[in-house]
Specification:
Structural class: mainly beta
Oligomer: single chain
Radius of gyration: 20 Å
CATH architecture: 3 Solenoid
CATH class: Mainly Beta
Strand content: over 45%
Number of helices: 1
Strand order of the largest sheet: 10-11-13-14-12
Distance between the termini: 68 Å
Length: 366
């Protein structure tokens, strides 16, 4: 017997606002749950809220989102629960790449929210992004885990697009081996907004955020910072530990994506704007042999990009030829690492380091 549809029951509670409780149990959701301002939703740790697959998903569908994307919401808290995107069902399939009415595949979606808190939750079986957000100001994300046995493309953990600021993110875990199957943390200040997984998002600066205690056993990429024109500034990462199949940190400005954001010949001075971004106490190793592809790739302009306390356990690393750090396609960049100094004055200059403990990137002359 099919489980009853719990959508109307839960939505009626959310429409009232205030404190909403979801007790233990399985809840079948057929339409997007929408959370209004001034709502605190508390779900029991073993309450499983699952996106059913009765009908094909379309643009704007999610398991849960805020109620007013145009006018904005404020003071929303989601605490607890297992939020299941049910990517096993074929009706929950992500749309084709440029399908303007396609399903983005994102489980939880937040756009235009002030004062947003997410904590003590598991996001399971996401089709694409587990949690995506843009235009949010003042947020706390704490104790969030990602779980899923089926790997899908674009399966980011926390995916931030533009105009995201003033946040604290802590205790983020990929529980399943192989998760997340794209970026565990994505700071995409710029991106292709025509792509189906980005429909409803926007480009813009990302700033003033701290990240602490980030863990994955075997993710695709630990951190992506995507900046072409918009800034990523005043970001601090502390205590990161991960095995990575592709990159530990990817700052390649989406040069190698299916949807590049610029033509190289049009940007002789380089691209990107990364300012005051610090990684502290970062321990990473490669879980797939990437040949001579680096663990950390920098292909955009940076001022005061620092790594303090970088460690690479060689006994775990299965890609011994991978440099720890490579900078290329940058103009007028200086790298200081463990007492050495290196300069890339033009795009043809490459800086590649096998290992380091401390590293700082700044503009030449600084």
């Amino acid at each position: 017997m099919k489980d009853k549809d719990s959508t109307c029951e839960i939505q009626a509670l959310l429409d009232r606002g205030g404190d909403v409780e979801i007790p233990p149990g399985f809840y079948r959701i057929s339409k997007t749950l929408r959370v209004s301002s001034g709502t605190t939703l508390r779900a029991a740790p073993n309450a499983r809220i699952c996106l059913c697959g009765d009908t094909p998903r379309r643009r704007g569908d999610h398991l849960l989102t805020n109620s007013d994307h145009e006018g904005g919401n404020r003071d929303i808290t989601i605490d607890g629960g297992i939020w299941d995107g049910n990517n096993f069902d074929p009706n929950n399939k992500k749309g084709e790449l440029f399908d303007s009415e396609g399903f983005s595949g994102s489980a939880l979606n937040f756009f235009n929210v002030k004062n947003l808190t997410l904590r003590n939750m598991i996001i399971a079986n996401s089709t694409a992004y587990n949690i995506r957000a843009a235009r949010i100001d003042g947020f706390v994300f704490d104790n969030i885990a990602f779980l899923g046995d089926r790997l899908h493309s674009n399966q980011d953990g926390l995916h931030f697009n533009g105009n995201v600021r003033n946040g604290k993110v802590s205790n983020i875990y990929a529980l399943s081996k192989g998760q997340t199957n794209d970026d565990l943390i994505a700071l995409n200040a710029d991106d292709s907004m025509a792509r189906v997984e980005n429909l409803g998002m926007e480009c813009g600066d990302i700033e003033n955020i701290t990240f602490e205690n980030i863990y994955a056993e075997d993710c695709h990429t630990l951190v992506r910072m995507l900046s072409v024109d918009s800034a990523i500034r005043n970001i601090r990462f502390k205590n990161l530990e991960a095995g990575c199949r592709c990159y530990a940190v990817n700052c390649d400005a989406a040069r190698y994506c299916r949807t590049p954001l610029f033509r190289e010949d049009d940007r002789p001075g380089g691209v990107g704007n990364i300012e005051n971004v610090i990684f502290e106490d970062m321990t990473v190793h490669m879980t797939a042999d990437r040949g001579d592809s680096p663990m950390i790739i920098l292909e955009c302009s940076a001022e005061n990009l620092r790594f303090n306390g970088f460690a690479r356990p060689r006994e775990k690393d299965v890609s011994p030829k991978s440099p720890a750090f490579t900078a290329r396609n940058v103009v007028g960049m200086k790298v200081r690492a463990d007492g050495g100094e290196y300069t890339a004055r033009g795009k043809g200059d490459v800086i590649s380091l096998d290992g380091f403990g401390e590293l700082c990137v700044c503009r030449e002359g600084k």
